[in-house]
C-alpha cells in the first residue's frame, strides 16, 4: 500500500536554526533518503517552499477568491512529503518515525493513498 508521509514543522523554528543545526538536519535527511532508497520503499519526496510563497484558491458563490499564504493559521506548516510503498501501516509508521522532522520537534502525518 502506498502512503503519503506529510512532514510538518514550525517554520519560525527552522528560520532561527543555526548553520550547524541546519547542516545536521540536512545530513539526517540525506541519510534517511539513502536508507529508504536502499530498502526500495521510497517512491518520491519533495521539499516545499515556505508558506510565505503559498497561494490559496477558493471558489465562493461562483467567484474565484485568491489569497496569499496558507488557508489556516497553524503552529506547524507542511514543509514537504514522501510517497512510500509499504507492506502495511506498521511499516509506514516505522518509516515515518525515521524522518528527521519527527525527531527535531515536528511531526509526520501518515496518510494512505487511494488508488484511483
Largest sheet: 4 strands, antiparallel
Strand content: 35-45%
Total beta strands: 6
Rounded mean pLDDT is 91
Strand ordering within the main sheet: 2-5-1-6
So, CATH architecture?
2-Layer Sandwich
Q: What is the CATH C-level name?
A: Alpha Beta
Low-confidence stretches: none
Structural class given helices, strands, pairing?
A: alpha+beta
- The name of the CATH superfamily reads Dimeric alpha+beta barrel
Number of helices: 4
Question: What gyration radius follows from the Cα positions, in whole Å?
Answer: 16 Å
- Find the CATH topology: Alpha-Beta Plaits
What is the H/E order?
EHHEEEEHHE
Can you tag this structure with a few keywords?
single chain, 116 residues, alpha+beta, Alpha-Beta Plaits, four-stranded antiparallel beta sheet, two-stranded antiparallel sheet, 6 strands, 34% helix, flat
